[in-house]
Prior knowledge:
CATH topology of the largest domain: 434 Repressor (Amino-terminal Domain)
Number of domains: 2
Number of helices: 7
Distance between the termini: 32 Å
Radius of gyration: 20 Å
Shape: elongated
CATH superfamily of the largest domain: lambda repressor-like DNA-binding domains
Number of strands: 0
Amino acid sequence: MFRTRLIQLRKAQNLTQQVLADAVGVHVNQIRRYERGATEPTLDVLVRLARALHVTLDDLVFDETERGPSEDLVLQFEAVSHMPDEERSIIKALLDGMIVKYQTRQIVGNLSR
Length: 113
């Protein structure tokens, strides 16, 4: 959850809400609203928050379980990243085809219910 990550990151760096607000260029009440979950920041503010907290936007927005391949695929994707462009393109096309096939089966399954 975004608000929880924001609080954790701010506290881990020993920043007060006021110091973070000043670094981001928003009013301290806005940081309080984000941390309460009362409102969500705009993309521009998210980028400034990530910069002020010295993290990537993904780290700020996504939970560890929400991004990236599962553990069993990490080594395979790493190996593919070292392949020549032509071979990576072929693997990407294969993956794209399998993803479309899976999504189509999901849609057809939902329509027949």
